[in-house]
Amino acid sequence: MDPTLSVSKGVFVFKNGGNFKNKKRTPSKKVSCILGEETTKEPFYRKYSETWEQFKSDIETLQKESNTQILEDLVKYVGNVDKLANILPVAALLTGINQPDHEDQFATLSHRIKESINSSVAIIKARDAAHLKNAIESLVFEVIQNQDDDNRESKRLRKTKLNMDMLKPDFESFNPLVLQDFILILSSYSQRIPIALILGVATAVSALHSALPYHVTSKINLRIFQTQSAPLGLNEILEKVILSPKQNFHLSGKAFKFLTHIFLFYDFSIAGFIHSFKYCLMEHFLQGNVMALCSNYEESLKYINKFDHEEFEYIRRLPSFRPYVESLQDYQKIIDILTDDEY
């Protein structure tokens, strides 16, 4: 047998005159909640959503009011960048020791700069700038990505002269040698391109002087901005929002102490405290429809009229219900409250 001959087996598809067309897929519906519709319509879930949205709105409004002035001053400084020979405008934003919140703060700042002035903003993080090459690549990528987000906007940007603003949220995490070379490169282009650099400093201004030697600091025009410290910010949120008398939901003493201890002894993160508070709110309302009574008097009456026997029994077993029953003097009234759901 000729060694070059072989037998091959295969599977072949014949259309046989058939016309197969790709059927258009119907777009899937967007799911706003992973819970079923039977859950989202329950009183406890509706009340939870309403309560959390109220807390969230009040906190965001308060934080916006607290940081408005410092952000306006910073944006004004960035917008009035002067071209100086080999001098780079640098703004040091003292954010305090609340590292987990830095990204949110700088995202807000970036959005405010884009709204206020015609500027291309690049946020460069320490993990993306281990070496000078990585830092330059991150800068170029951020600028190109920002301009490609909207085609119309990118066309307009190419026709106008742009400011370029670089934000570094985690200054202490950067390699000092990389940061020094990066600043020197930017300063060499500062006369041709309006460039401003914003550094997020978590500790103190002395960290800048420790990381940047004289031959680098002589190439920058430094200005200091300071945001509200994390303890003061949390204290303001507690007084004006979470512990406000207008709120129907309040933390217990143990839960409040636990959350404040985590904040003070671990991370100084306001965002972390708010997320933990949301979890407490969620845990409270998910116990059942009885927790929907955490509302005003008129709404509570509407919910009570829809309760069944098991939900009334749940109310009778609550620790706060016993002192009320013991305070009653009429024995018949006590019996009716404990046995009659229609009372």
Automatic annotation (TrEMBL):
InterPro entries given in the database record: ORC3, ORC3_N
Superkingdom of origin organism: Eukaryota
GO BP of this protein: DNA replication initiation
Residues covered by the Origin recognition complex subunit 3 N-terminal domain: 3-293
UniProt-recorded name of the protein: Origin recognition complex subunit 3 N-terminal domain-containing protein
Pfam families: ORC3_N
Organism: Megaselia scalaris (Humpbacked fly)
One Gene Ontology term of the molecular function aspect: DNA replication origin binding
GO cellular component: DNA replication preinitiation complex; nuclear origin of replication recognition complex; nuclear pre-replicative complex
